[in-house]
Amino acid sequence: MASSALKRGATVVLERLGMYLWGFRPRLMAAIVIQLGPVRALVWFVVHMPRYQRTLKLYGPVRTHLLCTVISLVNGCRYCTYGHARALELSYLRTHRRLFPLSEHTIGQLRGKQPGLIRYSMVSAAQSAGLYSEVPWMDRAIELTLADDRRPTEYNDVRISRLVDMMSLLNSVGIASNAEPDEAHSPLNKDRALNRRYDRLRPDPEA
């Protein structure tokens, strides 16, 4: 009974965190508590979320969500791929005032493909979007995602390595729980005007 109460409490805390950051209760939170246990789940977020927020501030949302999307594609996680791809779309639209070349749904179709095809498709899209400087960052993220030893060997590797470790854990939970995608994993998800503009420019093909 106490264990169940602790799990419910931890889930509520993490869902409220998602609500505060992104404006919704992420479906993955309950699965994280189940798989890691309530105490470990809370400690994991206490350690990793501040690091992620610092990376988001340093890299900016476009690069951060682009890397998280690529990592999730290589790992094969539908839930995280959609959440970060949608965040990428909103961030790119706000920054560049136009659409990213691939929709979040088209990006999602790359999940499960060979890493080489994922890289080719995402690099081509980034270059078409004018994000030429992001290609080396994506290449390194893919390389570290596929590596047995993910320890950083260069200065820029430190944050990429942490992103890979963080996303790989979330990806494994998303895959194991078969969590359904929900919304953009970004504060921009709370910007309803931006979301309406994006949806108007790119209607949901599944609607």
Folded structure, characterized:
The chain is mainly alpha-helical. It is built from ten helices and no strands. It has a single domain (50-201), classed as AhpD-like (Up-down Bundle). Helices cover 71% and strands 0% of the residues. Helix 2 crosses helix 3 (38-59), helix 4 (61-75) runs antiparallel to helix 5 and helix 7 (115-128) packs antiparallel against helix 8 (135-146).
Which stretches are low in confidence, meaning pLDDT under 50 for 5 or more residues running?
A: none
How confident overall, as mean pLDDT?
A: 95
Q: Count all strands and give the number.
A: 0
State which percent range the strand residues make up: under 5%
CATH topology: AhpD-like
The CATH architecture name reads: Up-down Bundle
What is the strand and helix layout of this fold?
Blueprint: H1 2-22, H2 28-36, H3 38-59, H4 61-75, H5 78-96, H6 104-108, H7 115-128, H8 135-146, H9 157-177, H10 192-201
Helix pairs in contact: 1-2, 1-3, 2-3, 2-9, 3-4, 3-9, 4-5, 4-8, 4-9, 7-8, 8-9
Give a nutshell description of this structure.
The protein has 207 residues and is an all-alpha fold. Helix content is 71%, strand content 0%. Helix 7 (115-128) runs antiparallel to helix 8.
Key terms:
71% helix; mainly alpha; 207 residues
